[in-house]
Amino acid sequence: MPNALPPVEEIKQFLLRVRVELTKPGRFELIPRSANLKCLADLGLTVAAAISEIMSLTYHDYYQGPSPDDNTAKPGDVWVFVKRIDGIYVYIKLKLDADRGCVCLSFHEPLHPFVHPY
Question: Residue 108 phi/psi, 5° resolution?
Fold first, then answer.
């Protein structure tokens, strides 16, 4: 993780690009990890509802990033947000990918305590 926080405007620009991708058919991928699927089930959310929650993210939900993706086979930056959904905090890790659009790598309860920097 970089030492300096990105400016609010950079976070807003990333979220705008995410929203643009989410409005295009077939440009969203939720990685079907068990923690992600369990969180959706626990909250009673469909993938469409998860997309709506992602669309409503703001810079106030920002937590970390941009940081290089751990998966070197698929380079790019990941951004992390933590949003309260139906009373539960949800850790949301997103990446914009030229081929797939908006990729949601994580959508689950945070594993560690967090503090929103903004």
Answer: -160, 170
Each residue's pLDDT tens digit, 77-110:
999 999 999 999 999 999 999 999 999 999 999 9
Instruction: Write the secondary structure of the chain as one string of H (helix), E (strand) and C (coil).
Output: CCCCCCCHHHHHHHHHHHHHHHCCCCCEEECCCHHHHHHHHHHCCCHHHHHHHHHCCCHHHEEEEEEECCCCCCCCEEEEEEEEECCEEEEEEEEEECCCEEEEEEEECCCCCCCCCC
Rounded Cα distance, 88 and 85, in Å: 5
- Report yes or no on whether pTM surpasses 0.90: yes
Domain ranges of the chain: 8-108
Q: What topology does CATH give the domain 8-108?
A: YaeB-like fold (3.30.2310)
